[in-house]
Amino acid sequence: MNAEVASSRTIVHRTRWRVAGQVQGVGFRPTIYRLAQQHHLTGFVRNDSSGLVIEAQGAAGVLEMFGKAIHIEKPEIAVISDVEAEEIALQQDEKEFVIAASDQADSADAGVMTDLATCPDCLREMRDPHDRRRYHFGLINCTNCGPRYSILKTIPYDRPNTTMASFSMCSECRVEYNDPSNRRFHAQPTCCHQCGPHLRLVNPHGEAQSGDPIDLAVKKLLAGQILAIKGTGGYHLACRADNEAAVQKLRAAKGRDAKPFAILCASVKSAQHRVNLSKAGLAALVSTAAPIVLAPAGEARDIAPSVSMGSHRLGVMLANTPIHHLLFSETGHHLPPLVMTSGNHAEEPLVYDNADALEKLGPMCDWILWHDRAIEHPIDDSVVLDMGEGEAVLPIRRARGYVPSPLRLPEASPSPGLCLGGDLKNTVAVVRGDEVILSQHLGDLSQAKSYANFKKSIDALCDLFRVKPEWIAHDFHPQYMGTVYAQQLATRFGARAVGFQHHHAHAAAVLAENAEAGPALVVVCDGTGFGADRTSWGGELMAVSLHGFRRLGWLRPIRLPGGDAAAKETWRSALAVLFNAIGAGFATHAGALRVQPDQRQRQFIAQMVLNKTRCVESTSAGRLFDAAAAILGLSTVNAYEGQGPMALESAAFGWKHKPEPIAPLYRLTDAGTGVEVDLSPVFPYLIEKLEAGASVNQLAWLFHQQFCDAWIEAVLTAVRATGLICVGLSGGVFCNQLLTRMMSTKLREQGLHVLRHRAVPCNDGGLAYGQAVLAAARFSKLAKAS
Known about the structure:
Blueprint: H1 3-10, E1 12-22, H2 28-38, E2 42-48, E3 51-59, H3 60-72, E4 79-87, E5 97-99, H4 120-126, H5 171-177, E6 199-202, H6 213-222, E7 227-230, E8 235-240, H7 244-254, E9 262-265, H8 268-274, H9 279-286, E10 292-296, H10 305-308, E11 313-318, H11 322-329, E12 338-342, H12 354-361, E13 367-371, E14 383-385, E15 394-397, E16 407-408, E17 417-419, E18 429-432, E19 435-438, H13 448-464, E20 471-475, H14 481-493, E21 496-500, H15 502-513, E22 520-530, E23 536-545, E24 548-555, E25 558-561, H16 565-568, H17 570-582, H18 590-595, H19 599-611, E26 615-618, H20 621-631, H21 643-653, E27 667-670, E28 675-678, H22 682-691, H23 696-722, E29 726-730, H24 737-749, E30 753-755, H25 767-785
Parallel strand pairs: 2-5, 7-13, 9-11, 10-14, 17-20, 20-21, 22-29, 24-28, 29-30
Antiparallel strand pairs: 1-3, 1-4, 2-3, 6-13, 7-8, 8-12, 9-12, 10-11, 14-15, 16-19, 17-18, 18-19, 22-23, 23-24, 25-26, 27-28
Helix pairs in contact: 6-11, 15-25, 17-19, 17-20, 20-21, 21-23, 22-23, 23-24
């Protein structure tokens, strides 16, 4: 190095870095402080509403190394989305590097950290009988774990802005909180036995029980009783999973007669004993997000039959709060896996407030294990589907552990916006620049309490991120609750309301999360969505870009008697497909008698179909799966959404033999503007084989194979017509692992590039993201044109 270069590297400079992303509440400031000490720099680091601001002063070469170290040495759980650096004026009298007070500004561009599962260091402390302050402390946490989003009232993430503000730290906690070398430095929920919060076991009247609450809770659970347990984002209802009577009692109390429950396991080994996990499934299970992982059931036979309700899968999760860990580690007791289900009744919102727990959960449980740390943002457990070896897990419900991590947009929006999603499996989102902050799962808006929670969550999301939307994106369906509310919000904010076609939003979501802008082909299969021609769509092949779509294929419409009633009473869908397959005499066909033995009901519905009375013509793929499940005797009524299709997939998984080759039963017809896919001939064949004694499992598998092959042929027709070789799969039907893997494999064998969901659900939980993608692209184009 020559003298001139050496001299330049020792000249004192001052650099300011602005670091954006999930950089608050993750131990970033103490990391920067330690790095500055190591490099002998002066200056400061502080939180602000955009993320972190770092100013450091020292030799040019040292500052260069320090700038690189910001990326290399960042805390493992931090996510940096952007770093801007600029040289600024020197501070002549500066003597040291400090962690400065946070800047309270008017904007809120900082990323908000997700809630994190308990870290190994905290677990060691909690299990150490020599740790007088935190041994058996059920609210233990540190910079690397614990509540974040669920307790945050406003940005920046500082203790006065959280629900911990009412708990004054004891002197020992305050020393840790102010010590940059301690892992609890500025860990906002820092606390201990002395300064609280505290754990209590109370009866349904709120009367506290004397004794150790964890020990008492374990004894109650072992006795087969039901407990409401307050977690990070809300309450669970729990009972031992090996006790059939307890599980049935919980089902009756919760009003959940048929939908499978998930279980909480004490360890990875315990979970692996009960489900077969792929590498990706195991990685998700042990991640800091700690979701419920749906995976094929293993060999263990100790789980009560009514937990899974006949499904070939079982949902498992690991302890993600200190309370969960304490329940399983209580000395002298062995607690089996626990049913751990959302603390609510049927489809109502999650209960998260202690007073509400007494009112709403008290009648449903025997005891309540609660704490007095308030929850600001209720958030349910996330759910992912293990797709098997070689495939990433599929998000089913994106909530705790993932929300509010931002998602990126292919094109930035020139103005802030709000997206309202769909009416089922609702999520909402705010948009600012090139990022989308998607809310947690909010539920079905047809439920009054869920709709109220939807409106409350919109306000909370806009307030937290200080977004005043200039546009409101919603579903194209004119009667959706979200569409109606979009008009009200547009008036309130002086914003523009803009609707997007349901399946275009699905398609845009799968493109964007795979960093594709199109054009591409996308197969979207779901229950229903309002079509561009104002009819009911649900089985679509589209050529898609972020600025439009062209419909290239669709399922042959079926005439659904009663419209939405057919989604509940699946035998109606079965009659509708039999009408397509057979014609006027369908009501006396063996299949019709099989799905509806009551002649009066069958003839009544048949007349509705024949006369087109109160019928909806729909290309719904979901209703075809319903119909197949009904015809095979698996489910003639959906007690919950997707029950029939789930039963059909479970039956197909039960077919372990080598598939026998069979000629296509479906028909493809050139309809001029696209190809019509007719699967109705499959159904008489299923009935014929069933009458001849064929296995239900084999026929369920055959239906999947025919459905898959029909779409493969339709896609290849579109590929030849368009030259597009990128194919996406979206819509709730692709929550079906068997179908998704089958189609993905066959498309790849044809040399096509397959896109599927990995970041947002393929069901309607991903619609708000798709709407954000389309709205940002539209308004970006308009801004460029003006």
